[in-house]
Amino acid sequence: MQSSDKPILESLNLFYHDSEVSGEWESPQQGSDDVQCLFCPERFSITSQKDELLKHFAVFHKFVIGDVNLITDLKKYLTYWRQRFSEEDLKTFCSVISTNNKNDVKESSEQYYLLCDVLAEDKTLREFLQKKKLERVLAQQQKEREDKGFCHTCLFCKEQFTGNRTDMFDHMTHDHGFSVGLPDNLVYTDELLDDLQEKLDNLQCLYCERTFKDKTVLKEHMRKKQHKKINPKNRKYDRFYIINYLEMGKSWEVIQAEPDDEMGEENETDDDESWGDWEEVGSQAVCLFCEFSSCVADKLSAHMQELHDFDLKEVKLRLNLNFYQQIKLINFMRRQIYLGICFGCGEKFTDKRELVEHMHSQQHIDRFPDTAVWDQPHFGI
Fold first, then answer.
1. How much is the pLDDT for 252?
2. At 365, phi and psi to the nearest 5?
3. Which of 66, 315, 346, 374 has a CB 3.0–4.6 Å from the CB of 332, allowing a cystine?
4. Which position has the higher pLDDT, 334 or 26?
5. Dist CA 233 CA 313 (whole Å)
6. Residue burial 34-45, b: 16+ Cβ < 10 Å; e: rest
7. Positive or negative CA dihedral for 247, 252, 253, 255?
8. Which residues contact 228 (CB under 8 A, 6 or more apart)?
9. d(Cα 75, Cα 208) in Å, to the nearest integer?
10. Is the CB of residue 44 less than 8 Å from the CB of residue 34?
11. Mean pLDDT of all residues in 194-219
């Protein structure tokens, strides 16, 4: 393959307009998203007929684009190459691949043209389009930060927030145990909230995306199954995360799965579960009923209250507990759960999930035996 002597950036600037319809991750804009085939007059929609377009390339024109899903703006990418293909022969840019049928008959051999970022011009084009898209996304994010006209009701209660989107995301995280990530990592947040609200209005779980008969059943399902989070497998959410515009091929799900080393601490592996104290991983306190953890006490309390119907403050007031008694009660609860015993009725379970489900369904989450059972020195600090 030979690369062109023409300056790629100058060629790009000839037709690169921010007002054009953007790629599939960006906010919808007015105008057509149709694109013409590189080799014939047939047209396709980039958003709804992308697969048909690529199939058309392969079947009718023996043309394949390598790593096409990593191209951040396919329409502008194709517009650029339509111009270049009109100037020079296809073989100047593409690798030629010959294929044979099962009988290996030479006459039936077919040639396919592969365009990929092995070609320096193609690689530069992809990087340029990614950079321009990132600039537009960051500009949109800054616009949202400065916008004082924001007004939206919480997805889980009737509290209304105006002026600052961050306040609403923080509220949902701390008061409802629902987090979609740090607000500084999000973009197109109005559309994200509208999409989530639409799912809830349609009685659809945000995580497993099952539909339920009424809001009460949906709320109970999301609480019991710990589904107060969005589905990481749903690629529709990718466009709302800045990370997806920074590096080709790296999604927000991959980043979310990476270890959190913000505090400069190594992650611990908890092979031997301990019930002797309020279990910690680094500076993370762990929920009594599941694996959720947080270094923020209020966030952990909100999680247990919202997802497990356990309000430590209410228990403290109801049982008139002092600090030392709180510690002993917590350690007693953790020990019973570790042993698979419901502290509300004494029933034994072999599976922790079944135990927690039982405690929820029987309302044994905050039902305790006589004080003398747990107010023992060995449950202390």
1. 53
2. -60, -40
3. 374
4. 334
5. 36
6. ebebbeeeeebe
7. positive
8. 176, 177, 178, 206, 207, 222, 306, 307
9. 33
10. yes
11. 92
- Sign, CA torsion 147/148/153/159: positive
Residue with tokens 């960006």: 26
User: In degrees, to the nearest 5, what angle opens at C-alpha 17 toward C-alphas 190 and 68?
Assistant: 75
Tracing tokens 């659809």 back to the chain, one arrives at 204
Q: Per-residue pLDDT tens for 40-90?
A: 999 999 988 999 999 999 999 999 999 998 888 899 999 999 999 999 999
Q: Beta 63-65 vs 110-115: how paired, if at all?
A: parallel
Find out whether 66 and 116 touch, Cβ atoms under 8 Å.
Answer: yes
**In terms of Cα–Cα distance, which of 107, 158, 120, 151 is closest to 2?**
120
Amino acid identity at 261 = D
Which tokens sit at 332?
């007693």
Average pLDDT, the chain: 79
Please give the structure tokens belonging to residue 183: 């607000």
Rounded CA gap, 275 and 256, in Å? 28
> Exposed, middle or buried: residue 156 (CB in 10 Å: 0-12, 13-18, 19+)?
middle
Q: What is the 3-state secondary structure (H, E, C) of the chain?
A: CCCCCCCHHHHHHHHCCCCCCCCCCCCCCCCCCEEECCCCCCEEECCCCHHHHHHHHHHHHCEEECCHHHCCCHHHHHHHHHHHHHHCCHHHCCEEEEECCCCCCHHHCEEEEEECCCCHHHHHHHHHHHHHHHHHHHHHHHHHHHCCCCEEECCCCCCEEECCHHHHHHHHHHHHCCCCCCHHHECCHHHHHHHHHHHHHCCECCCCCCECCCHHHHHHHHHHCCCCCCCCCCHHHHHHEHHHHCCCCCCHHHHHHCCCCCCCCCCCCCCCCCCCCCCEECCEEECCCCCCEECCHHHHHHHHHHHHCCCHHHHHHHHCCCHHHHHHHHHHHHHHHHHCECCCCCCECCCHHHHHHHHHHCCCCCCCCCHHHHCCHHHCC
Tokens 């039982």, residue located: 358
Q: At 22, which amino acid appears?
A: S
How many residues comprise the chain? 381
- Among all chains, which residue has been given the structure tokens 């403050």? 313
- Dist. CA 300–CA 84, nearest whole Å: 57
Give the residue among 220, 252, 227 at the shortest CA–CA distance from 177: 227
